[in-house]
Design a protein that fits this description.
- This protein is of the alpha+beta class.
- It has a single domain, classed as OB fold (Dihydrolipoamide Acetyltransferase, E2P) (Beta Barrel), CATH 2.40.50.140.
- About 25% of the residues lie in helices and about 45% in strands.
- The chain contains 1 helix and 4 strands.
- The protein has a 4-stranded antiparallel beta sheet.
- The longest helix is centred in the C-terminal third of the chain and has 20 residues.
Length: about 80
């Protein structure tokens, strides 16, 4: 059984660096990310491409983990 992965592409503008953080702009909104996520030669004004992915398999694994942790708590382990 294959899982469908939904994906959306986004393009940001690298506005500025603030220490170890990078501030990206998208339609008037700011997104602050660790600077290490960008190419080391990224500069202010560069267009940054990102892809947002909805991974249903990962969502199910997280749900299962949360359920297992809850069961441990309820059993007093």
């Amino acid at each position: 059984m294959s899982q469908r992965i939904n994906s959306k592409e986004l393009y940001f503008i690298l506005d500025r660096f603030e220490g170890a953080k990078a501030v990206l702009l998208y339609e008037g909104q700011e997104l602050v990310v660790p600077r290490r996520f960008l190419d080391k030669d990224a500069q202010e004004g560069d267009a940054i491409y990102s892809e947002l992915i909805c991974d249903k398999k990962m969502e199910k694994r997280r749900e299962n983990l949360a359920r297992a942790v809850l069961q441990e708590i309820l059993r007093g382990e």
